[in-house]
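User: Round two. Same drill as before: sequence, then structure, for each protein.

Assistant: Same drill it is. First protein:
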Amino acid sequence: MKATMMPAVTMLAVLSAAAVPCARAAEAVTGTSNAGWNVAGAAGYLDERAAWWMSWPPAARDKGTFCVSCHTALPYALSRGALRGRLGETGAAPAESKLVENVAKRVRMWSEIAPVYSDEKQGAPKTAEARGTEAVLNALILTSEDARAGKLSADARLALDNMWALQTTSGETRGAWTWLNFHNEPWEADDSQYWGAALAALAVGTAPEEYAMEPANRERVAMMVEYLRAKAPGQSLLNRVWVMWAAAKLPALATASEQKAWAEELYARQRDDGGWSASSLVVSTWKRRDGTSMDTVSDGYATALAAVALEQSGVGRAEPRLAKALAWLEKNQDAKGGGWPAMSLNKQRDPASDVGRFMRDAATGYSVLALTGGE
């Protein structure tokens, strides 16, 4: 589906429009279960994995901080708050607070703290890639936290300033950010720069107090929107679902007809059991580097992201295909561990190992968002 370019003036006009409202279904909390899934179990899984990541020696970084990972820390930050009301919590979980404090510390010390990866240790251009990637992740985590309070904090504004300072302003990638590439799908591969720009759009759209419409940001936002629209036709569907999500916050990213077309493309790849397989949504030429066959069964990561994107684009939960996806998520939560299944796209891993659970970490965070409607 070809994305039609909008003039910058039109983009900015649309940015001021109200985001598409998302249909939500009221669900009553009964004990630790809710509408067929275990809320407390999901929270327990997420908390345990976040705490493990923060204390894992390979995740340690400069000045007593830790790396904010795409697979464990980011989905945790975006999803854990959605469980507070259902669990009767009056504030953030300890691991949530620790994560936000870690991000804020790195944001405040941005000019003096070492990047999470560097040219010296990993080879060029890892310093630039690490800075661009972290700047976007930091901004998204802090704006998501502020959105709950409805007020943009000084730390979040500084994170956004750091992010904008690293936006590419010329060339083929104008409007995007230099992104980590370790040749790992779906977050650090050749096509992940587009995903990173979608995360930046989500951060800007999530920021409270109409941040996106501030005069100083309009040109930057327009460049970002132009990049995401221009590059959309060549992107994997797994990347485009993030733009569907972000477009609920920044409507200039996709017209209603484009959103509908992407939704139909998603439905066409939905499996009979109601789920999606991540391997069916990445670029068709992607192969595991160990030569093993890609998993083709439905998994929690792809199914949850598809459900979140559909919900955010305005699809009601009563829509049969979305309802079937949510039912798949309810049915496939691990009764013992509390998480959702997902498999590596890069190599066959032991699903019981800590590294082997990275995809499960992401699947669990986004499954929570799908099932709660992003509360």
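Second protein:
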Amino acid sequence: MKWKEISVVTEGICAEAVAGIFHELGSGGVVVEDFQAARRYETRNKWNKGLFSPDFLDHDFVVIRAYFSEDSQVIDQVSELLSRVEENFGVKCRILMDEVKDEDWEESWKKYYHTFKVGKRIVIKPSWEEYTPQNGEIVVELDPGMAFGTGIHASTRFCLRFLDNFLRGGEKIIDAGCGSGILSIAAVKLGAESVFAMDIDDVAVKAARENVKLNGLSDRIKVEKGDIVEKIGDLEADIILANITAEVINILLPEAAKALKPGGMFFGSGIVDSRFPGVQEKLEKCGFTVVEVLTDVDWVGVAARKI
């Protein structure tokens, strides 16, 4: 299968808004290339400079790439919605288009995506690599395909760290916007009793189900396609994971508060720092108290407890 790759070059302040547009239009995967974040990792010697062009660290912009099936006709809608982004944020957005084959995408992941550790215990291992876990480590085997959620981006790492820090075992969890299924799998391997995972994107649901099966957890993780905002009111949970966007988190929170048990935890991520005050205000209005905030360049993750 061939995919349309639509890239938007713009400023970091509106990365979340652009990614949100792509998700709303039914993208089969969104990738954010954040060069400011890369500079942070370069100073910690945690990446291989040889994999990138010499001018990589000099860029001040971000690139948001989205993938659509070859027969989709979305470019006019993208252009129209981006004009609103430009007006609201006072930025310029440049659009680029290309074509990508499934096999090209898969080979790209195998070349650049390798085993790495998040937090104290979680190891993310691509399905094509071998790894022997050390004492206390849990291994999440992953083949992300074209679904969001590799563990590399700050927003996913925030939720993984929250799980590592706060999960005690036996919890029932809701994964709102599950992407590749990485958070659901990590949660169960850390001791959660069960996870209900949902995503609105067909590609994500397919990838999540395959990854759940790959990790042998089909009996404890249920993956469904749908709008979690509409579904969550019928559910009950000890923890809710929401690695999405600030806008969707604000819409989700009132229903999430109903679904969570007293003392339950809400882990929100995918939040651009400029939008965090609004999320914090919404959390307080919905009866939550903020327990921990994680930041990385322009991104924020928040762990909050239902009072």
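Residues 50 and 108 are 15 Å apart (CA to CA).

User: Perfect.
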